[in-house]
Amino acid sequence: MNKRVSLIGAPTDIGAGSRGASMGPEALRVANIGPILQSHGLEVIDRGNLSGPANPWQTPVEGYRHLAEVVEWNRLVHEAVHAELKGGRLPILLGGDHCLGLGSISAVARHCREAGKKLRVLWLDAHADFNTSDLTPSGNIHGMPVACLCGYGPKELVEIGGHVPAVSPKWIRQIGIRSVDAGEKRLVHEAGLEVFDMRYIDEMGMRHTMELALATLDANTHLHVSFDVDFLDPDVAPGVATTVKGGPTYREAQLCMEMIADCGAMASLDVMELNPALDVRNATAHVAVDLIESLFGKSTLMRA
């Protein structure tokens, strides 16, 4: 794994249905994400926060809330993440709501095309985020980034990165899913996404789930992890706006992260939807940083 890490703050809740995720980057910094990663021998540079348009908090227009602002934020994220990858560094995007995964992952896909690498995306989330404006009345774009990455969405978003679709659904593995709208579910099946929902994890266990999600990775594969904090059960992580009961326990999440670390292929990371306004004494940020630490090699294993 690349030891040169860059933190990029994206303080916006522009794609969300409630305010507060814009404070996520600072909450992660208060939880000492930089020093903790440095303690594992990583060279960490904090690039500070990107500066994009304010949240106008308006109703949907033609099926989308804040489309122009979402496009601008994702353009900024795309260029920042791509620049770090081009410079040989591992970018960690500190969100912000999960609409920003579109800018981040499209940048990773662009980098992989330029470098001749294969791409695998692990989408750790309670939600599939595969909605379109025809399927959701809210118009909140944080429920649409995976669909946009796969070519389903407005021209302004699907073309970020210069290649449509930015990714193939076959490159994505969704883990922890437990809240999907009916129309969204049909589109997920039509697109051919590989989804390990909570029933699968309950029946087969996190170990088997991760073995399948990480199968066939090789030395020429760039692994991107997009970690929505609502992936976790709300008993573990209450500080998110879109909690869904029945998510992975703390120990299941640790195993997930440790197995990702064991494969050694992770080359970029998103940390999304942390909402300090709904948290208790920054506890969810500390849990998130603890899990991120495991992604970079912290282990509870007592094995030689």
Overall shape: globular
Tally of individual helices: 10
Topology pattern, helix = H, strand = E: EHHEHEHEHHEHEHEHEH
CATH architectural designation: 3-Layer(aba) Sandwich
CATH third-level topology: Arginase, Chain A
Q: Any idea how many domains?
A: 1
Helix content: 25-40%
Mean pLDDT, all residues: 97
Uncertain residue segments: none
CATH class: Alpha Beta
* Sheet with the most strands, sense and barrel status: 8 strands, parallel
Strand content: 15-25%
Strand count: 8
Strand order of the largest sheet: 2-1-3-8-7-4-5-6
Rg calc: 17 Å
**N- to C-terminal distance:** 20 Å
Q: CATH homologous superfamily, by name?
A: Ureohydrolase domain
Q: Name the structural class.
A: alpha/beta
Describe this structure in words.
The protein is of the alpha/beta class and 304 residues long. It has one domain (4-295): Ureohydrolase domain (Arginase, Chain A, 3-Layer(aba) Sandwich). The chain is built from ten helices and eight strands. Strand 7, helix 9 and strand 8 (266-272) form a beta-alpha-beta unit. The two termini are 20 Å apart. It is an enzyme of class 3 (hydrolase). Belongs to the arginase family.
